[in-house]
Design goal:
Helix content is 31%, strand content 21%. It is α+β, with helices and mostly antiparallel strands. The strands form three sheets. Strands 10-9-11-13-14-8-15-16 form an eight-stranded mixed beta sheet. The protein has a five-stranded mixed beta sheet with strand order 5-6-7-2-12, covered by helices on one side. A three-stranded antiparallel beta sheet has the order 1-4-3, with no helix packed on it. Strand 13 (381-387) and strand 14 form a beta hairpin. The longest helix has 20 residues, at 126-145.
């Protein structure tokens, strides 16, 4: 990274390891944009939100960067652009990055009671995005209610620590042969692919299901598992119940992003995650969740050992450092990365990302209803986040049908959980407007399925 800008020389940043493949692979429905939201208990004041953003962004200078295309790699360069907070008017996770266009790589929007942050994945991962959103929401509530809240985790790091490339910091050099062996070890063959009726315009369809966090924790304990293991098992079961007999010849592979900050001391807001793959053979399924849990648990335990996580991080972080790869021009890298990205997706059925519990200062919590998260995907990705007793499962996909999520939420209802569903599904016979609201009942006991206003 270069030093402070001097005259016409601007500060620039190398992309972190996880971000390097993103510009080349952002195509179609896979916009590589994530949305994280905070739903308040009161209507958002746009002017106060703009002021809060302008106050907070000074501590996150990297988010004001634009993406540039170099000869060998993409890079981020500081800009003087200022973001204008706007009323939400686009489908969730709409494209932010367009090749050849120079613009900010994030949006802040509002709708009714919701504050939304959407971000191109080169800037940050979900954890880094939540660090910013929490600061933004905290500052907004301080301004609206004329209060001063206490500092909290994620707010004490310096500006430079927020911009650290943690992959670079913790990388341990390895020989190329060892890297290739490890890549082969963590790769999988062809997996079952989720099918569905695609939206004609590849517009993202958002599903949000809110349940009691206490209920899910209790169910996980009853099954001698963690929330992560238990929800993964339920999700795999939902996939299995949507598969035909012919489709069960291939395994279900759930890709699970892992926040590496749990294993390495870092306060970076940039990308710092690894991925583990949970593989399940449909032939082992006897119709019960119990027949899935043991397999999922053992794979979590094995792949989340410190040495396993370190190996995965080093493999991904070191491969691009090889001199032969470094010297390849960017236009060739774009083609190669896109090819391997499409091939790698054949080995993944779906992605389940657990962002965990979101904490806010005690003085501010009474004004907040829930947090939620969504990540654009070519097939289907589910993000889990919790605040208080509200656990939210957020899914975005290009499918106009939602068989897997329907099975997933029905299984929760059958287990005694109350499920509140919201969607931005469009009426395909008229213009798409986020203000359009429909309400309907599922007819299932203990389940309310009102389509709420999308924000």
């Amino acid at each position: 990274m270069m030093g402070l800008s001097n005259g016409n020389v601007k500060k620039w940043y190398k992309l972190d390891n996880a971000a390097k493949i993103i510009p080349s692979s952002a195509k179609g429905a896979d916009t590589r944009v994530f949305r994280i939201c905070c739903e308040l208990k009161e209507t958002v004041d746009p002017e106060k939100l703009q002021q809060a953003h302008d106050d907070v962004i000074e501590d996150f200078p990297m988010f004001r960067c634009v993406l540039k295309r170099g000869f060998f790699w993409y890079y981020l360069e500081e800009s003087t652009f200022r973001l204008k907070v706007e009323k939400d008017h686009l489908p969730a996770c709409s494209p932010i990055y367009y090749p050849g266009r120079i613009n900010l790589l994030y949006r802040v929007t509002y709708f009714c009671k919701r504050i939304n942050l959407e971000m191109f994945h080169v800037l940050a991962d979900g954890t880094g995005g939540f660090i910013f959103l929490k600061r933004l929401v905290a500052r907004y509530l301080e301004l609206v209610h004329d209060i001063k809240s206490e500092r909290y985790e994620g707010e004490t790091s310096s500006v430079s620590e927020k911009g650290d490339d943690a992959f670079e910091q913790y990388y341990m050099r390895q020989k190329l042969g060892k890297q290739l062996k490890q890549l082969k070890k963590i790769s999988v063959g062809k997996a079952h692919q989720i099918r569905g009726e695609h939206d004609a315009n590849l517009l993202p369809h958002l599903i949000e299901g809110t349940v009691s966090a206490k209920k899910i924790i209790a169910l996980a304990k009853e099954n001698n598992s963690t929330v992560g293991v238990y929800t993964t098992a339920l999700y795999i079961q939902a996939v299995l119940n949507s598969m035909s007999l012919m489709e069960k010849a291939r395994p279900v592979v759930v890709s699970v992003p892992v926040n590496l900050r749990q294993f390495f001391d870092s306060d970076t807001t940039r990308n710092f995650f690894g991925v583990i793959n949970i593989v399940y053979d449909p032939g082992s399924y006897d119709g019960s969740t119990a027949s899935i849990i043991d397999s999922v648990r053992s794979q979590y335990e094995d792949q989340l050992k410190a040495e396993s996580v370190e190996r995965i991080m080093n493999t991904y972080a070191s491969f691009e450092r090889h001199i032969a790869i470094k010297m390849v021009p960017i236009w060739i890298k774009d083609i190669v990365i896109d090819f391997f990205n499409r091939r790698s997706k054949r080995g993944i059925t779906t992605t389940l990302s657990n962002l965990g519990r979101i904490d806010m200062p005690e003085k501010l919590s009474p004004f907040i209803d829930r947090f939620s998260a969504f990540m654009a995907a070519p097939s289907q990705q589910v993000c889990i986040s919790s605040f208080g007793d509200r656990m939210v499962f957020g899914e975005v996909s290009p499918f106009a049908t939602h068989d897997v999520m329907r099975n997933f939420f029905r299984s929760l209802v059958a287990l005694g959980a109350e499920v509140e569903l919201a969607s931005n599904d469009y009426d395909r016979h008229r213009e798409i407007k986020p203000e359009v609201i429909k309400k309907e009942k599922t007819g299932r006991k203990k389940a309310s399925a009102a389509k709420r206003k999308r924000g």
